[in-house]
Amino acid sequence: MTTARYRPTWDLVLDPLVSCKLCLGEYPVEQMTTIAQCQCIFCTLCLKQYVELLIKEGLETAISCPDAACPKRGHLQENEIECMVASEIMQRYKKLQFEREVLLDPCRTWCPSSTCQAVCQLQESSPQDPQLVQCKACDIEFCSACKSNWHPGQGCQENMPISFLPGET
């Protein structure tokens, strides 16, 4: 015959619950995630859903703390995101980051061919001036400024087709 040991009630202290700022639920600390940069804390499920939504929608490449009143305006680090989401979502996140880098880089541009997804280099001496770009993947030659076929000696507006709205002449 076994007997249960008596434990005084003061030994049965419950783990404190922490409130999630997103769903307003209260959870044990083990079910919460703290953002390293700002120390804001959310339930792991809410934070995961927030991160996945932003990546799936392609809304942000720098995922900020979901607390609109975050005093430090924190952002999630790449390793924090990677721990939270599935590998295919993380691949999409990295692709979005790369696309944004190319978009913001004055010395790189995307090939305008609909069948080509290559990134083309521009001459560093004058990346803002229209220049001939030859895609190394598909060999198309295009203008770096307007992405039309290369038009030497013509300005980009002269080369652009004139389009009218319905009802205009």
State the main characteristics:
membrane; EC 2.3.2.31; zinc-finger; alpha+beta; 2 domains; transferase; ligase activity; 169 residues
Fold and architecture overview:
The protein has 169 residues and is α+β, with helices and mostly antiparallel strands. The protein has helices spanning 44-57, 78-84, 87-104, 156-159, and strands at residues 17-19, 26-28, 32-34, 41-43, 108-110, 119-121, 132-134, 141-143. A two-stranded antiparallel ribbon has the order 1-2. Strand 1 and strand 2 form a beta hairpin. The protein starts with 16 loop residues before the first strand and ends in a 10-residue tail after the last helix. The mean pLDDT is 83.
What is the CA-CA span between the terminal residues? Answer: 101 Å
Tally of distinct domains? 2
- The CATH superfamily label of the largest domain reads Zinc/RING finger domain, C3HC4 (zinc finger)
Rg, Å, rounded: 27 Å
Shape estimate: elongated
Placed side by side, the strands forming the largest sheet appear as 1-2
Contiguous runs where pLDDT drops below 50 for at least 5 residues: none
Mind summarizing the main beta sheet? 2 strands, antiparallel
How large is the share of residues in beta strands? Answer: 5-15%
Q: Any idea of the CATH class of the largest domain?
A: Alpha Beta
Secondary structure category: alpha+beta
Which second-level CATH architecture of the largest domain applies?
A: 2-Layer Sandwich
The CATH topology name of the largest domain reads Herpes Virus-1
**Helical residue percent?**
25-40%
Order of helices and strands: EEEEHHHEEEEH
How many H/I helical runs? Answer: 4
Protein name: RBR-type E3 ubiquitin transferase
Organism: Psophia crepitans (common trumpeter)
Pathway: Protein modification; protein ubiquitination
InterPro entries: E3_UB_ligase_RBR (IPR031127), IBR_dom (IPR002867), TRIAD_supradom (IPR044066), Znf_RING (IPR001841), Znf_RING/FYVE/PHD (IPR013083)
